[in-house]
# Entry
Amino acid sequence: MKKALVTGANKGIGFETARQLLQKGMHVYIGCRNLKNGENAVAKLKAEGLLHVEAIQLDVTSENSVKMAYEEISKKTDVLDVLINNAGINGGQQPYTALEATSEQFQAAFNTNVIGVARATKEFLPLLQKADQPRIVNVSTSVASLSLQSDPDWPAYHYAKYAVYAASKAALNMYTIHLAYELRESNFKVNAVCPGYTSTDFTFNNGGPVNIAAGRIIKYALIGQDSPTGKFFSEETNPETGEIHW
# Structure
């Protein structure tokens, strides 16, 4: 049975991603800052008959927490097939604009959305390297595309309120490019995926269905060996091929 770790998976898109991976026959570790919330999420999934799931205390902003999570998971398995870096924040209390956001908001967003991803990825790399076809998905957003965000004809061009979140995710995209390049001679597939504008508490319950968003993430977590790596996908933005410009 293949095994996956989804960070920030006790609610929202992360929770639905975990559910769909379980439905596909995988064993899923739900990473969550608050273990009680993770245990509640596990209980919900097990009530649906999805039994191969465990909650792991994991705060990507804490070096110690990530190391402890690795130690716990490594006691349970020698191999991790999929890492989905889903945990993320929008920058805290509004406003999120470039002119009004505080340095603390930028720091918090980068600490979770970029540094936290790099921290978790590096820690779990030894388990991923033992998989036959390891996959890493970094959950990004189309508003982090420099090409799209600088295009006056793009619908989100005027969404200046996303400056903090978008800047951190743009940095995540660059990290994804470099990670994919450094792993290019291996069986790894590393991609950035935008799940789309989705109705969760993250978006104040605005957007599309969470099951569709999670399905987009899972598609790239389970891609075959002849599939691309080091790419940026947003099927909401480009329904034909999925790939969008950085």
The CA atoms of residues 96 and 164 lie 5 Å apart. The domain at 3-233 is CATH 3.40.50.720 (Rossmann fold). The mean pLDDT is 93.
